[in-house]
Amino acid sequence: MRIGALALQGDFAEHLRALARAFAEHLRALARAGLEGVQVRRPEQLDSAAGLIIPGGESTTIGMLMERFGLIEKIRARAQEGMAIWGTCAGAILLAKGIVGSSQPRLGLMDITVERNAYGRQIDSFETTVEIKGIEGGPVPAVFIRAPVIKAVGPACEVLAEHEGEPVLVREGRLLAGAFHPELTEDLRLHRYFAALAKG
Questions:
Q1: Domains of the chain from N-terminus onward
Q2: Residue 183 designated active-site
Q3: Residue 79, burial from CB neighbour count under 10 angstroms (0-12, 13-18, 19+)
Q4: Which candidate in 14, 115, 172, 183 is catalytic?
Q5: Cα 65 to chain centroid, rounded
Q6: For 71, how many CA atoms within 13 A lie in the half-sphere containing its CB?
Q7: How far apart are CA 19 and CA 23, in angstroms?
């Protein structure tokens, strides 16, 4: 099974490292399953991907690059075919159907509305822990860096985690959107969760 990390801009390398760490303890089983983390820059690289991570970064830049390289339509098509997608921070913005005050390019796959940078500027970044539905072992560390706020969640979406009453991780079928950066911590449970989602 191959999982891609969109490598146009942002912290895709951290996601790939987290995937490698998450799977290291299951090395023998993974070798049999053929699991592999790969960078994605071209539409054809998605053909064999069971899942795609859209990392944090600058959502407007990533959206324009996705549009320029023909990735938006390809990702939408692969999502319809069942490819799992996980958007973190800027990735969550790109997955959203609604973005407050913005008409930027987006995938528009999830029935959520987000507000960009709503947790404040870079100086307002913080780390906390959140309880995530479906993940055992206690709270998961969450790093918020110029994070979006999920302002509205449609009926098809399930809220998996909240921080101070606001949704910070939501799921719609095989789509996952989070406001925080799990790849910047040593906790790999959310990456394992996504790998299981991609594997189906």
A1: 2-199 (3.40.50.880)
A2: yes
A3: buried
A4: 183
A5: 17
A6: 24
A7: 6
Is 163 known to be catalytic? no
What confidence tens digit (pLDDT) does each residue in 149-200 have? Answer: 999 999 999 999 999 999 999 999 999 999 998 888 888 889 889 989 998 7
Catalytic residue (one of 89, 115, 157, 172)? 89
Nearest to 8 by CA among 60, 49, 51, 48: 60
Of 23, 62, 57, nearest in space to 194 by CA: 23
Q: Extract the runs of DSSP E, i.e. beta strands, from the chain.
A: 2-6, 36-40, 49-54, 84-88, 96-99, 110-115, 126-130, 140-144, 149-153, 158-163, 166-172, 175-178
15, 163, 181, 191: the active-site residue: 181
181 given a catalytic annotation? yes
From residue 57, how far is each of 2, 12, 41, 61 by CA, in Å? Answer: 23, 9, 15, 8
Classify the phi-psi angles of 117: left when phi > 0, otherwise alpha if psi is within -120 to 50, otherwise beta: left
Assessment of whether the complete model's pTM goes beyond 0.90: no
pLDDT tens readout for residues 44-93: 999 989 999 998 888 888 899 899 999 999 999 999 999 999 999 999 99
* 3 state SS of 181: coil
